[in-house]
Amino acid sequence: MASVARSGLAGTRRLEAHATRDRDLLLSFLDGDRIYAAYAIADLDDSEFARTRWGIAVDDAAVVAVVMEYRGISPQPLFVMGEADGIGAVLRDVIRTRVAYLASKPGAVPAVAEHYVVDAGADMVRMCVDRDGFRPVLGDAVRLDAGDTRHLDRLYELGLTSWLPPEAVASGVYYGVRRGSRLVAAAGTHVISPTYGVAAVGNVYTQREYRGQGLAKVVTSAVTADLLRSVEQVVLNVRADNPPALAAYRALGYREHTHFEERLVRRRGSLWDSIVGPIKQALSDLRRNG
């Protein structure tokens, strides 16, 4: 356990930063902003918890910040929530991921930047819907399974250059629209936790020549309807500069909950930083000197 002195109007107090596997303690803090923390809450589930590492900052026995890294994916997802100096203390002493894909409220980014080189990133909107607010849109979407993985890979490679393992499709909820034998639109899931009542829609994509026909809305509606049979809240992320997508999700009953940022971050003092830093400085000097 590490501690750091912090000064304020009430005098100096000490933040203690340490690792924890106490799911009840973590959930009690994450529930303070359940929609923003939906992915992290789902990762408390037995199916995901072994892949996670958690750090907390405590002030006078009260948790003031939580940081979670998800292992097994590169770059590793890194989630932060809470007071900025608490986040900084955890990143300094407990969670020291070398390269990560950060999800953070804007106000916490400077605390992360004390320990990481933070790349430019997108302004994201977290949206959510529940059973009462959901407005389904019917269409010809069909449930996909592991046997459709190659079709999903082919679709996503058109615009996302990504791939999915068959087990992700089998354990998730994926729906697609076909034209003939061709999969032209699909949506799926990132996380599902009936235990904690949350799930996240993701991998929404429509082939370019079929856009403007409402297919993204149809497949997202199908996935959402399926998820809401087993969870109370469904969330999704969308770029703030994508008005058509925002409008499509609003039409399904999704509401905007909060803005956050997604950034690629690299640990300061790492080998990568020692290589790239001098190069960036040299380029900067060249531009400055003409």
Description:
The longest helix has 18 residues, at 271-288. The protein has two domains: 2-123 and 261-272, Aminopeptidase (3-Layer(aba) Sandwich), CATH 3.40.630; 134-252, Aminopeptidase (3-Layer(aba) Sandwich), CATH 3.40.630. It is built from ten helices and 14 strands. Strands 1, 2, 3, 4, 5, 6, 7, 8, 9, 10, 11, 12, 13 and 14 form a 14-stranded mixed beta sheet that branches. It has helices at residues 23-30, 38-42, 46-49, 84-93, 109-113, 149-157, 166-171, 215-227, 243-251, 271-288; strands spanning 2-8, 11-19, 52-59, 62-70, 76-82, 99-104, 116-118, 122-130, 142-144, 174-179, 182-193, 198-206, 233-239, 255-267. With 290 residues, it is of the alpha+beta class.
Q: Unreliable segments (pLDDT under 50, ≥5 consecutive)?
A: 7-11
Count of discrete domains: 2
Mean pLDDT: 90
At CATH level 2, the architecture of the largest domain is 3-Layer(aba) Sandwich
The run of helices and strands is: EEHHHEEEHEHEEEHHEEEHEHEH
| The first-level CATH class name of the largest domain | Alpha Beta
Number of helices: 10
CATH topology of the largest domain: Aminopeptidase
Class by alpha and beta content: alpha+beta
**Would you count the extended β strands for me?**
14
**Residues in helices, as a percent range:** 25-40%
Overall shape: it is: elongated
Largest beta-sheet details: 14 strands, mixed
Taking Cα atoms only, what radius of gyration do you get, to the nearest Å?
Answer: 21 Å
- Give the end-to-end Cα distance, rounded to a whole number of Å: 50 Å
